[in-house]
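Dear Dr. H.,

I hope your travels went smoothly. While you were away I took the liberty of generating a structure for the chain from your last submission, since the lab meeting agenda had it listed for discussion. I wanted you to have the full record in hand beforehand rather than looking at slides cold. The sequence, exactly as received, is reproduced here:
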Amino acid sequence: MFPIIDFHVHVYPALPLSSELKKVRSSLKSVLEPVSQLQHNAQSLIRKFPQFSRKFLEEITTPSVIPHLLIESQFDDLITEMNTHNVEKAVVIPHPPIISNDFVYYECRKAPNRLITSTFIDPQTMTKKEDLVAFYNQGVRIFKINPIQSGVPAEAPYYNDFLEYLNSKKAIVILHTGNIYSHLFKAPDKGDVKNFIPWFTRYPDIKFLLAHMNFNEPHRAIEQASLYENVFLLTSWQPTDVIEKAINKVGVSKILFASDWPLLGGNILTQKNRILQLFKNKKISEQDLKNIFAENAKHLLA
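The corresponding predicted structure, in token form, is as follows:
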């Protein structure tokens, strides 16, 4: 079994449940597993629809993550999934206001050898560079920017001081890439990877990781990773054929395993199987598989 480093997971606050409800919650996981797989398959197909229909489908399907979060989303759930699927370490991503930076920091301290903390750059919680520096001084080396969630587009001056500082520290910045048309987000049309292109040359010492490979339009993310040495691709939400195209275009060394656990349930297993399929089909070597699963991440984290 090959070890894995998952570069994109979330942990949600625990629900105040009685022991009886906890048992019910645990039993429901197996009930939802077939539904989860159907949803993962459907998500890969939605991108093939015309944009106007994609927008409608994303609006009505995005809330479908909620039942899964009620069943599986907390610290103990994550550790169980990691143990089940041989995930040695995982980068935990905040998602304000539900998952705050402080919450993630303290959750990761429960398992410091397994969980790697990150910090979300968001105007609600980070108004000046000193706020970010405080997290850096606490040992945080990975930062997340998500304009569709924060509502602040990439071209906003708000980011300048933060990125200048992170560039001086040669930090890792995970960028949410891809538009997701749902009213659950403040700026659903501000996620396209093209919005970040000026950053790739302006901040050459930042390692930019493109979460979700621009979601429904991954060819754009793949193209940017092929053009810029400091741009890498995370595999979350992408099917096997897209991951294969990414490998052929940018090389294995720029591909890192990420699942976005727990949003549809079974994220780690689904994404692992998609990459294993490339190995089984002899599209990648055993060493390539090891690199995507963990070695590339170890190199960036070193």
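Two observations you may find useful: The chain has one domain: 4-301. Residues 4-301 form a domain with the TIM Barrel fold (CATH 3.20.20.140).

With kind regards,
E. W.
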